[in-house]
Amino acid sequence: LRDGTPGVFGKLDELTLGDIVILYTGETEIRYTVTQVFETEADDLNVIAEKDDTLLTLITCADYSFFSNTYQNRLIVQAKRL
User: Fold this and answer.
1) 49 near 62, Cβ under 8 Å?
2) Which of 38, 21, 36 is CA-nearest to residue 82?
3) pLDDT digits over 8-46, tens only?
4) Cα 62 from Cα 80, distance rounded (Å)
């Protein structure tokens, strides 16, 4: 975040294939297993195209450039509902 503290996805880059992601919606718990972790260009919108309602896609910024004061890439974690 602007003040230097990690954001909600601050440790997203630590997820690996097979890890479990738990999504809570009220009292409901939905479990997913990580199937892909990759980076893409910041302007690549293909990862947000509706594909499958059992697929969870988490996106955060990656590769910060102090010279341009921007993030160069996006980190993508995709997980399949169990």
Assistant:
1) no
2) 21
3) 898 999 999 999 999 999 999 999 999 999 999 988 888
4) 22
